[in-house]
Amino acid sequence: MAFSLLSPPPSSALCSLSSTSSSPAQFTGQSLRLWTSRSRTGPALPVLTRASSEKDDDKPAFNPFGFVTDNPSSRSAIQMPESPAEDGNVGQMLYRIEDKGKEYGSYVKSGKFRWFVRETGSPESRRGTVIFLHGAPTQSYSYRVVMSQMSDAGFHCFAPDWIGFGFSDKPQPGYGFDYTEKEFHEEFEKLLEVLGVTSPFFLVVQGFLVGSYGLTWTLKNPSKILKLAILNTPLTVSSPIPGLFQQLRIPFLGEFTCQNAVMAERFIEAGSAYVLKLEKADVYRLPYLSSSGPGFALLEAAKRANFKETASQISSGFASGSWDKPILVAWGISDKYLPQSIAEEFQKGNPGSVELKLIEGAGHMPQEDWPEKVVDALKMFFRV
Fold it and tell me: Is the whole model's pTM more than 0.90, yes or no?
């Protein structure tokens, strides 16, 4: 089905846009504000309506509002008023979701920065401390259910939002933090000191970019780790690089891509077999919707990352003869970014230390898709 630009628009213009476009545009929070700030009496706004001369089986035309209509969670979460030019939609949306997603969390000052850290259990928990590290472009919110159930099982749990992500500080590059691997490592070590994590602990890592940095930090600090659990993280040089991170590294396109207000939820859904429920999508969207800082933090981190070199460090660093601590690889087999073969290849590199647990029904973020199965695997593995 094709469309043509006509005016004036009907009052339900936005709601009539195609929900099956195969090439949705990146649409920023700033652009959304521009759209919603037009007055009712302002100039007529162009709207996509069907061209009478086109056939039904033609390909969809470019849809500038694709992020609203094409993404299932976004379609239910970001809805324009009946009159698209009505003011206040973005502000109302932020007001609706701004207090969501902070379960078990509080702010912790570490060095120059303020981290948002989730905590369950207590330092006296009988089974030890577990640190959960998220990947890009998400946040520690993904671990909320796993953390709750792990503390019920007797563990003391922490899950920080990396600097630049979630609810933690997002400093501008050049002002004390440039989003390099070395800086992420240094700030994480400072945070551990502030949290009072001095004894060896259990570590759980998932995801791209900062998730990988969690593993390279581990290779430099083996004495601080009791056991390591890895959920769907690039582990070998054959690990694919998702399109999002490739786009972020392209001049101009990267600057545009990083300001997509629904980038995180779309990334999650694209790597899984499931659509995020509205209340979850709200939380993943909130940092990117509320300011430009998280997007530019992700942009800087992606530009400075060497994905293949980092994957090579991880593959060789955990190979037989280099690492002797127990490793659990709990892998969502429906991951659309990282195939099961990556986990199997990693296990073959160190069969004596690596235990592979395949999680059916889970995708790139098994802690979000099926937290109960992740908890079962962790409890069995962390037995001491």
Answer: no
Amino acid at 360: E
- Strand-pair category, 47-50 with 3-6: antiparallel
Any bridge partners for residue 157, and if so which?
Answer: 120, 130
Chain segment 6-30, per-residue pLDDT in tens: 444 444 443 333 333 333 344 444 4
Q: What angle do CA 158, 162, 166 make, to 5 degrees?
A: 95
* Residue among 235, 226, 217 at smallest CA distance from 314: 235
Token look-up 């520690």 returns 140
Question: Prior bond to 173 cis, omega within 30?
Answer: no
Q: Is 347 exposed, middle or buried (0-12, 13-18, 19+ CB in 10 A)?
A: middle
Contact 51, 4 (CB under 8 A): yes
The secondary structure of 257-293, three-state, reads HCCECCHHHHHHHHCCCCCCCHHHHHHHHHHHHHCCH
- Domains in the chain with CATH codes: 103-382 (3.40.50.1820)
Residues 6 or more apart whose Cβ sits within 8 Å of residue 182: none
Nearest to 26 by CA among 55, 61, 66: 66
Helix (H) or strand (E) holding 229: strand 225-231
Question: Of 33-42, 66-75, 85-94, 161-170, which has the strongest mean pLDDT?
Answer: 161-170
Overall size of the chain counted in residues: 384
Q: Which H/E stretch holds residue 315?
A: helix 307-317
Peptide bond into 326 cis (omega under 30): no
The single residue listed with the structure tokens 């396109």 is: 253
